[in-house]
Amino acid sequence: MTGDPRSILVLRYSALGDVVLATSVLDPLRARYPGARIEWVTSPAYAPLLEGLPQLSGVHRLGPGLGGARELARSLRGRFDLAIDLQHKVRSALVARAAAPRRLALRRRTVGQALLAILGWDPPRRAPHATQLYAGALRPLGIQRPGQTHVHLSGAARARAAAALAGSAAPRVALAPGASRATKRWPAERFAEVAEALAARGASVVLAGGPADREALSAFRAACRVPIAADLTSLPVDGLAAALAEVRLLVACDSGPVHLATAVGTPALAIFGPTSPERWGPPPPGRALALPLDCAPCSNHGDDRCPRGHHRCMADLGAAVVGAAAVDLLGG
Predict the structure, then answer these.
(1) What is the CATH number of domain 155-330?
(2) Domain segments of the chain: what residues?
(3) Residue ranges of the chain with pLDDT lower than 70?
(4) pTM of the entire predicted model
(5) Tens digits of per-residue pLDDT, 218-247?
(6) Cα separations (Å) of 302 from 38, 113, 154, 316?
(7) Which of these, 42, 55, 77, 224, has the minimum number of CB atoms within 10 Å of its CB?
(8) Is 102 helix (H, G, I), strand (E, B) or coil?
């Protein structure tokens, strides 16, 4: 292919936070190629967050397994000038190769780092921030910096959010005690203490999360001694995003809701332990909160168990510290 691409396919299908962070490539791509058609491949669950974005001309749902990738590859074969693979896995590579003759891909590791990871040694990478990492894949195009993250809030999503928030009064603060890995979870009982401190200052407590957070959500409900003014945990992901746009603050572990909140303009107080706040933390006015321990961060994505057995990064972080930071972000 010679000349500027007239059609571009971006691929990022998991996980929630990564998909939202990857949207930071859209503004610089659109500025670099204002006349190009840009489309995206993602998981069906996250497609509603992207459909309707003005930077995108289309969103394609990737079905499960290699079968889903082969089916999508057939339907997109030869339709694009350039594919930008921000997932860089077997399924995304299969689709990208079929879709476009020119391809760029996210490089997570050097060859040496990849070999060490196979042998079980994968030291955490503190920097750059994930959005800078995605922008790095676009350097061959002359793009150096990421843009803002984006999600689309449809009318239906806003209506679902309004119904879930009905009866709660401003200022609303959402708390999301769940996380994908056990070591990334701050105790739900301490989230409940933070909720009580915020309620004492007049905030309405809003509970956020998803089906995978069932255990943490149950523990929070059992421990919380103030009313939960609104429960967002049954909303689909686009409804959750629309609801987070209506709260003043989100308090959460290192998890997808942090990036959803950022994309809709809501500050997030993100609690970090095993993972790097420099890499995954929310931008200002949001804040990452982590203890200065010599063993943290210890993981790129979190694990099921603390490698040292003490989990001090979360166990030693008191509710008073988090509550004070939340009150500060809420504006006193």
Answers:
(1) 3.40.50.2000
(2) 7-107, 155-330
(3) 1-2, 108-122, 332
(4) 0.95
(5) 999 999 999 999 999 999 999 999 999 999
(6) 33, 18, 32, 17
(7) 77
(8) strand
Q: 208 near 243, Cβ under 8 Å?
A: yes
The pLDDT assigned to 114 comes to 52
pLDDT in tens, 42-52: 999 999 999 99
Task: Locate 210 and state its tokens.
Answer: 């998803």
CATH architecture of 7-107: 3-Layer(aba) Sandwich (3.40)
- Tokens 């989990």 appear where? 311
155-330 shares the fold of 7-107? yes
Angle of helix 155-165 versus helix 237-244 axis, rounded to 10: 70
Which DSSP string do the residues of 221-245 spell out, in sequence order?
A: HHH--S-EEEE-TTS-HHHHHHHHT
Distance CA 16, CA 173 (A): 21
What is the C-alpha to C-alpha distance for residues 236 and 157, in angstroms, rounded to an integer? 8
User: Is 202 exposed, middle or buried, given 0-12, 13-18 or 19+ CB atoms closer than 10 A?
Assistant: exposed
Q: What is the pLDDT of residue 187?
A: 98
Number of Cβ within 10 Å of residue 145's Cβ equals: 11
Report which DSSP code applies to 134: H
Cβ atoms of residues 259 and 274 within 8 Å = no
Rounded to an integer, what distance in angstroms lies between the CA atom of residue 72 and that of residue 96? 10
What's the CA gap between 5 and 30, in Å, rounded? 12
**Residue 152: what pLDDT?**
98
> SS3 helix, strand, coil % of the chain, rounded to 5?
40, 15, 45
User: CA separation (Å) from 326 to 83, 191, 332?
Assistant: 41, 11, 9
